[in-house]
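As described in the Methods, two query proteins were run sequentially through the folding procedure within a single session, without resetting any intermediate state between them. The first query and its resulting structure tokens are shown here.
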Amino acid sequence: MTTARQAGLIACVTCGRVEHRGALHCARCGDTLPEHSRRSLQAVWAWLVAGIIVYIPANTYPMLRTSTLLDKTESTIVGGAIELLQYGSYGVAFIVFFASIVIPIGKFIAIGYLALSLRRARPDRVHQRHVLYEVVEFIGRWSMIDVFVVAILSALVQLGSVATINPGIAAVSFLLSVAFTMLSAQSFDPKLIWDADEEPQ
């Protein structure tokens, strides 16, 4: 069975009229026709690379700065998870490590894989790639747990000259990394996953 894409046709999302691929506007309603171009992948790669770049200082610079009467301490994401393990907070340490290390790196790999998979499309894995895209979209909202924790601690623990907790530069970098990764995922057109296996005749 020949699909619309294989026949070189495209539908207007406003009125449903079918036009030949290459037309810019609908002949019936005048609305702009959707263009699922692979050029949109440029935005995906741009946001993804930006997210990876700012993710590096998010893990190397301190996420949290704690000042007390006796000393000052700075904790990175991994260092904070290790300290939580040492104090016996295994559950919290796992959540911090999973949300701050595993999920962001997994999103980088998943978005990169989806973008690269369009070059070598496999019809038997189209559904799996679409499910992967939905998973990336879903977990995006849970990626800023460290930023939320730092913000809450900074607001609650302000005991004057006794103890203060302030966010480090890594908090800003992590926030930017999450935002850039979310923009990268939103720039990815999921219809390209299905269109990659169909070329117009």
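Immediately afterward, the second query was submitted; its sequence and tokens are:
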Amino acid sequence: MTGFATQTTQDMPLSVAQLRIARDLHQAEAALDEALVRQAQLLQTMVGARRGTGVAPFLGQEALMRLVKSQQAMLDAGGELARVHGRLSTIAVETCGGNDACPPAALLEGIDLAEAAEVSRAA
């Protein structure tokens, strides 16, 4: 049985793997923020609709409470993702010779991974 630590084939340079992980991590962080914004908008719309239509003051209260629980879950997920980010930063330092800075967002968004692989192989 071959474990990860004993794997000797290198299908991809570390620099390319690092860029791919960083790109996907930044996208995941942005998606969580977007979900929180949309949930906040939904909460505002729900309360505004209740007020604007003149229905009973506590109509839909259970739905509002569930939405707030959903928002709390998103905040908790964001905290866990921050821990993932921190651990990945530590791994980058351990495996990439001290590269503890996150790649610039422009590099992550515009990278041609095939080109990055070629550059890495040539180095």
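The longest helix spans residues 14-53. We note this only descriptively and draw no conclusion about the first query from it.
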